[in-house]
Amino acid sequence: MSKIEWTDATWNPVVGCEVLSAGCTNCYAMAMANRLAGMKATKSLYGDTVKKVNGKAVWSGVVKENQAVLNKPYRWRKPRKIFVNSMSDLFHEDVSTHFIQQVWRVMKETPQHTYQILTKRPERMRDILLGFIDEVLPNVWLGTSVENHKVSHRIDALRQVPAAVRFISFEPLIGAVGQIDLSDIHWAIIGGESGPNARPCKVFWISALRRSCRIGGVRVFVKQLGANYIGYENQPVKLKCKKGAKMSEWPASLRVQDTPRVRSNSVLMPSVGFKE
Ligand code: SF4
């Protein structure tokens, strides 16, 4: 089972990744892969995916397709919400189109589950889906991460992806996102960074996103305010919960944890870019 608030379980058919933008700096998966690389049972899988630079563990650039866990969802009989690749990015350039097609086959053949795929490489996701996967699965939600305005262009690529649900993870939110077009987007997760090196997250950034989502009709799940939360006085606010995940400590206007509206047997098509 997963500790992530918006999912039930994780499934990691890809191992290893590479830092792409500022949102990756304190990558949880990189630290976890380093821990797994040091354990006897998981060393052979994770060992070459990380290396040390100035004493710090970082991705080595090795990305592997893990056939051994590809069929895992078949064994889960009860329906679950499954976060695909919490430890990597399914659309990393080194993951083959053929392997991604195999992942799609598993998701298609296990319709009892709902799959959530989050990528920082939505352009590749769009190109593969439009070029090589000719079926939209109603049980697959596709999303991209946007940590600040510098990467808000990812939303435009996501909009062109045919999907049952298109979602954005504004986490770790480390800067203002600014004006964004949220048309054809169904769900947004918002969260400040956690951990000892957490960068500041301002309440104004969260409330601006909350407002944009309300205007755009996008459902919102505020996950946490982060470990370095800056309140309305523009001053750090000390919260009892280390990662700011306790709703009772939040401003009332941010207390929202909605999930997307999903109509069974219906697929929400993008208004642009989809080839029939
Ligand atoms: S894309 Fe995701 S898994 Fe890969 S380095 Fe960035 S945060 Fe980590």
Secondary-structure map with pairings?
Elements: E1 9-11, E2 14-15, H1 28-37, H2 43-46, E3 50-53, E4 56-59, E5 64-65, H3 72-75, E6 81-84, H4 97-109, E7 114-119, H5 122-132, E8 140-145, H6 154-159, E9 165-170, E10 187-191, E11 201-202, H7 203-216, E12 219-224, E13 229-230
Parallel strand pairs: 1-6, 6-7, 7-8, 8-9, 9-10, 10-12, 11-13
Antiparallel strand pairs: 2-5, 3-4
The structure holds iron/sulfur cluster.
Explain this structure:
The strands form 4 sheets. Strands 1-6-7-8-9-10-12 form a 7-stranded parallel sheet. It is globular. It has 7 helices and 13 strands. A hairpin with a 2-residue loop joins strand 3 and strand 4. The protein has a single domain, classed as Alpha-Beta Barrel (TIM Barrel), CATH 3.20.20. The chain is α/β, with parallel strands linked by helices and 276 residues long. Bound molecules: iron/sulfur cluster. Iron/sulfur cluster binds next to helix 1.
In short, what is this structure?
With 276 residues, the protein is of the alpha/beta class. The chain has 7 helices and 13 strands.
Which strand order do you get reading across the main beta sheet?
1-6-7-8-9-10-12
Bound molecules: iron/sulfur cluster
N-to-C SSE string, H for helix and E for strand: EEHHEEEHEHEHEHEEEHEE
How much helix, percentage-wise, in residues? Answer: 10-25%
Straight-line N-to-C gap: 37 Å
Largest sheet: 7 strands, parallel
Number of domains: 1
Total helical elements: 7
Assign the CATH architecture: Alpha-Beta Barrel
CATH topology: TIM Barrel
CATH class: Alpha Beta
